[in-house]
Amino acid sequence: MGFEYLKQKRILIVDDEQELLNMVATILREDGFQAIQTAQTVKEAISIANTFFPELAILDIMLPDGDGFSLMEQLKKQSDYPILFLTARGEEEDKFRGFGLGADDYMVKPFLPRELLFRIMAILRRCYKEDDPLVKLHDSEIDFARAEVIKNGIHIPLTAKEHDLLSALYRNAGRIVTIDALCEAAWGENPFGYENSLMAHIRRIREKIEANPSHPVSLVTIKGLGYKLIVEAN
Amino acid sequence: MKSVPKLIRRFVGVLMISSFLILIANISVLIIIGLQHSPNASPWSSAKNAAAALTKTENGYQLSEQMAAELAQQNIWAIFIDNQTHQVVWHTDFFPEGIPTQYTLSNIVSLTRGYLNGYPTFTGEAQDGLMVLGYPKDSYWKHMYPSWDYHMIADFPKIIITFLAVNFIIIFVIYMTVNMKLLKSVKPIVEGIQNLTTKQPVHLKEKGLLSEVSANINRTSEVLQSQNYQLKRKETARANWIAGVSHDIRTPLSMIMGYAGQLETNPNLTKAEQNQAMVIVRQSKKIKNLISDLNLASKLEYNMQPIKWKQENLVALVRQVVVDFINTDIDQKYPIEWMTEETLTSCVIYADKDLLKRAVSNLIQNSINHNEDGCNLYVCVKKEQNQCAITVEDDGVGATKEQIEALNHTPHYMVCDDNTTEQRHGLGLLIVKQIVESHHGTVLITNRRHGGFSVTLTFPL
Fold first, then answer.
1. Do the Cβ atoms of A109 and B326 come within 8 Å?
2. Most buried of A114, B35, B207, B365 (most Cβ within 10 A)?
3. pTM (global) more than 0.90
4. From the candidates B240, B249, B251, which should be mutated to test the interface with A, based on the most A CB atoms within 10 A?
5. pLDDT per residue over A132-171, tens digit each?
6. What's the fold here for domain B309-414+426-460?
7. Whole-angstrom distance, CA of residue B390 vs CA of residue B457
8. What are the residue boundaries of the structural domains of chain B, listed by start?
9. Do strands B377-384 and B336-338 pair parallel, antiparallel, or not at all (unpaired)?
10. Which domains does chain A possess?
């Protein structure tokens, strides 16, 4: 998938285990990320952050001279950028604490490289969508920054709800997003009884992005479960 | 424990009523004995009979033979005093010395009321005189001056009833006081024993008659408390130990999984080598699931898993789990079919979202683990009158009837206190059962009608 502009982002990885740092750095490098720095302690992390200006931090919770939560607070004071927790602590309380303080995602070790990469890309896409170039679909392109679709050279504006729905689908491009998650993205928490409205919005989006809205190829229905947005490679 | 005050009340009540009954019985017995000791022919009536039995003949007075024999038999002497002369005009053959033969009016009054020379005397009226019977000395004791207030005799029944009523009231008051005192001293002990059964700490005042019992209850409570504490400590230590081990395994396992995952897709390796890496990844995933299952199962078992109750839409929750599986199943080896009716969009129950998600994903993972060559999965949420059912089925290898039976009824080795070395099954289903139980639901494991495995979780609405 063509998200080369996101691969330019500066990433800071903090973990007390040197081998794990090496592994994560290798995984990221092999996927095309270039600006990667690692730190083993809170102190080291802060001093690197002062000169490196990371755009995403991957933090462990248990560090030799402090914990990941307080490190996150200190890093966020400097500049507000997304944080992904990568930890061996699977406890649910930790998960909530992390999200409550403004963490963007949370992964429990062990993890598969592709899962980690997917999460990182999802966070970056969400947080840096303003500098997103056009998203290429089969029959059209989406310009999220200007909230419009370009089909056959014609610029078609997106409504706020359509923009929200497409963003949610794009963040999980290539994956199914449930009906409930889409309703939540458009109408907020506990969205009961919006299924019909959702169907109406999806139909309108298809009219804008598909060559033949009756036979969609970019925004496909997964019966009973949800929808999937298929993005073309650049 | 409510029976103890009842028991005491009954006991004291029986005691009181029986003492009252004994009092009445005693009085009755006294009356009966008194009646028995006064002979049918009382001395007064004997005297009257004797007077009637005396007839005047030409030779003087004559007593009937029968009466004479009766008097003689009882050693009774008799005299007859003439009305006119106040002289003794007749007497029995047995006539003690010293008995006067001439009587004044005051003599007659005195002998009627009392004694004559120590002989208790009784009089009977005849037509022209007075018959006097003299009983042997010390045979009768006479009321010399019997007289009672008229009202006392007239109100006798009333007095008796009042007397009994007063007695009854006194007994009742004693009953109440004794009862209250006894109950007051027993009540804390009863409460203490009750608290013992609910594992609450008990501290009774060690005073009064039952101080020893109180002291023993206090000791027992202390022993129980310390045992509970030790048990809790052991359980916590065990759960912490498991949590610690699973934590420590995670980081090294990350590296195994991470590098194996990279090798799996490394284009410089041969297909065979890539497959070997794939096996490492798959087995590492199993270890990953196992340690997180072990951790959660031990926490659920020792009630250390906090449950966050919230209203949750089961349809959305199960749908998310299914989609998560489909999204990660890249090779489409385990396609999942969503069987829920399209009209059912929400089914709201009070639940812990993360735990329920875990239960459903364990069921799906279970089907995947037992069908290495792939299988189709069918997931369905159904809303019935007052319950909501989640069914996860597969068309894979299934299980034998015996296995199904064992899964439904045999306790898991982890929560079984037998010394068993036989490992029956993984932790996946145990966790499902623990989670569903904490949500007051039920788990039903069966074979799918067309072959394969089927698990239904039912929750009350």
1. no
2. B365
3. no
4. B251
5. 678 888 889 998 888 889 988 899 999 999 998 998 898 8
6. Heat Shock Protein 90 (3.30.565)
7. 5
8. 3-37+150-187, 48-134, 212-296, 309-414+426-460
9. parallel
10. 4-127 (3.40.50.2300), 135-229 (1.10.10.10)
